[in-house]
Amino acid sequence: MNLDSVCESLRKASRILEGLSAQQKNECLNQVAKALDENRASIIAANKIDVDAARKNGVSDSIIDRLTLNDSRIDGIIEGLRSVISQTDPIGEETGGWKTPNGLTIRQVRVPLGVVAIIYENRPNVTVDAFCLAYKSGNAILLRGSSSSYNSNLEIVRVIKQALAGCANTPACGVPEAIELVEVKEHDHSDVDQILNAVGKIDVCLPRGGKKLIQNVVMNARVPVIETGSGVCHLFIDESANLETAVKIAENAKIQRPSVCNAVECILVHSAVASKFLPMMEEKFAGRVKFHADERAVKFLKNAVPATEEDFGNEYLDYECCVKIADSVEDAIEYINAHNTKHSESIVTESRANARLFQAKIDASCVYVNASTRFTDGGEFGFGAELGISTQKLHARGPMGIKALTTTKYLIDGEGQVR
What we know:
The chain is an alpha/beta fold.
């Protein structure tokens, strides 16, 4: 990959995008949605090549699930894209304004970041999500997916570029150069190093994937990074919890889709209700999850293995879960803050005081009361799509939608003032 020429092309495209109206960008995105719908057969066929290769290589079912595209998931991708289209264009939004004593008028307005790179694993839906959020917010995007999803990503990008090219000579002014996909070679990550060191060429880089990928980007990048964390999420069952509700939430948070970052990896139970709740949960889970239980919790579970130190803070991304007993809400908060990845945490409780204490003291991007952590998602939050879940505290935190790809600048109008 000739990164210099790719980034130069992306920079030119970002400058064109910055000047397009919301209507022009929306018309282009509508054409992309239409093209994805019309080309779903070729996308699914390309995806099948990736899935078959993954199965042949012995990849786990949870990773296969992340990789797989079908009609239902393409419907979801298109629905998310249309949701982004329906949102207000943030570019040019005035976020603040005032007049100084000497008569200067100062306005703070939203502008695009410029050239965005995203390095991600497995999920080909991210290709569309990242593109549409970048395009709507006036940014060009460089996509670096994994080799396991390369055929899927290649076909999706082909469809997107073709749709944008069809708009190029219309009032919509499509900009196919605003999206580029890195050609991925298995076991070769030299291109990742180039991206991470592209100072002045790439304005921000986002890692989206497992712990190893994220740590590599955070530790080695010389360009600015928005960190999207792995998801070691916890669910705490308080002593005042409605246990029927708690069982339902635990089942959804762990089993509904265990391969994703907002699935629960550890269930903490107050010691006062452990003897009743844990057998209820085990019966509800019906052997679908392998429990790694601490020395107190293991006594209340028929089919559990003793947890090791490695289980505490582990992201299984599979039908496995850590179980631990806590003696108070304060005990649970202390444990979670010591072992989580600042992603999503939840408490099931009927105590308003404990609910508010949990939300105030837990250090995470999303903190729930009486709800599943599975709702930490751009679509569920009304963003349509997302770039990932930011677990850092600067610039953006939580599910990242359109505004996460913007910054601001000040526009100052004067009448000849000098200092």
